[in-house]
Structures are given as C-alpha cells and as structure tokens.
C-alpha cells in the first residue's frame, strides 16, 4: 500500500536507503566482529612468529651453550653435599697444595668465620701468611690466581723478613666466589 503510492524516484530512493541500512546493519552485526577477530588473530600470529624465530635461534645455539655450560659447571655447582665447611676445607687444601708446589712456607692460614651469602653466590674468604723467596712467592701468587677453584687474591702485603733479606713474608686475603 504505502509502496504503491510512491513515485518511481521515491521508490528507487527508498530502496537504496533500505539497502544501505541493511549493509550497515550487516556490517555492525556480522562483518565488523569478524574483521576484528581476524585482526586479533593476525596480530597473535605475528607475535607467535617472532617468538618462534627467537626459539629457533636459541635451539640452533643449544650445542654452543651446552659446551660453555660444561666448561663452567665445576665453578657453578658444588660437588657432593657441599656444606660451607667442606667448601672451606677444599679451599684450604688447594692453598696448601699450591704452597707445596711453589716451595713456599705456609706460616698461618685462617678462614673467615662465615661466608658472605648473596642472592646468587657465596663468597668464602681465607687469610694466609707465607714466607719464601721472591721467585717461588711470585709463582705461588700466579698459581693461586690461575687455580681451578677460581681463587682470587683480594689483598696482598709483602715485607722482607728480619733475618734474611732474600726471604719475604706475604700476607694475603684470598676469596672464592661460588655460584649457587
């Protein structure tokens, strides 16, 4: 009824208006949400591709990382139960062994009371006093710094002995950092 009373131009205009409204309605209810979902999925795909690329790069380097880890494994983990007393005993044993090898006389050796515990490591400290001639003493210092236990001399004080000018007395503060 209403449609029949309209002129041809009005019918065409009203038809176009209904078509536009129907397309807008479809866009808002169906096409828009589908398009938004596709955008979200594409964004997730891009993020996943970047993560996958990073993971593949890490997998390619797995052997290299494993080899490096094996090199430093003895310095990171304790052997056996690894109590603090055992670790200090290992350090003292290493120092005694190096002193014997270097032909220096170990006068005194005292571990500090407790290791300093940090978040990722513990630091063990030992005070020693040695006597020897210059060349064996320098060799001993070198052996300490290149030790397999990663010992480090924090403080070194050298004085000539009172009786012999060729013999030196050295006081050292030696530390070892153990990564937990």
How does this model look, in words?
With 180 residues, this protein is of the alpha+beta class. 55% of the residues lie in helices and 25% in strands. It has helices at 8-60, 62-76, 84-102, 134-145; strands spanning 105-111, 116-117, 121-133, 151-160, 167-179. The N and C termini lie far apart (89 Å).
Short summary:
By secondary structure, the chain is α+β, with helices and mostly antiparallel strands. The chain has helices spanning 8-60, 62-76, 84-102, 134-145, and strands at 105-111, 116-117, 121-133, 151-160, 167-179.
State the end-to-end distance: 89 Å
Question: Could you give me the name of the CATH homologous superfamily of the largest domain?
Answer: Ribosomal protein S6/Translation elongation factor EF1B
What is the domain tally? 2
The first-level CATH class of the largest domain is given as Alpha Beta
Kindly state the percentage of residues in helix.
55-70%
Name the CATH architecture of the largest domain.
2-Layer Sandwich
Q: Quickly give the structural class.
A: alpha+beta
Average pLDDT number: 86
What is the C-alpha radius of gyration, as a whole number of Å?
39 Å
The total count of strands amounts to 5
Largest sheet: 5 strands, antiparallel
Count of helices?
A: 4
Poorly predicted spans: none
CATH topology grouping of the largest domain = Alpha-Beta Plaits
Shape: rod-shaped
Instruction: Give the helices and strands as they follow along the chain.
Output: HHHEEEHEE
Beta-strand percentage? Answer: 25-35%
């Amino acid at each position: 009824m209403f449609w029949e009373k309209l002129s041809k131009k009005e019918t065409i205009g009203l038809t176009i208006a209904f078509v536009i409204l129907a397309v807008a309605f479809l866009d808002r209810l169906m096409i828009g949400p589908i398009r938004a979902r596709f955008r979200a999925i594409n964004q997730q795909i891009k993020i996943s591709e970047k993560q996958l690329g990073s993971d593949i790069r890490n997998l390619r380097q797995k052997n290299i990382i494993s080899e490096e880890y094996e090199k430093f494994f003895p310095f990171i983990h304790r052997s056996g139960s690894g109590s603090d007393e055992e670790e200090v005993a290992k350090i003292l044993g290493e120092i005694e062994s190096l002193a014997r090898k270097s032909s220096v006389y170990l006068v005194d050796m005292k571990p500090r009371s407790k290791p300093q515990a940090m978040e990722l490591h513990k630091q063990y400290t030992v005070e020693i006093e040695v006597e020897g001639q210059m060349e064996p003493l320098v060799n001993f210092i070198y052996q300490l710094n290149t030790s397999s236990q990663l010992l480090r001399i924090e403080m070194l004080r050298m004085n000539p002995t009172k009786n012999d000018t060729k013999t030196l007395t050295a006081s050292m503060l030696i530390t070892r950092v153990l990564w937990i």
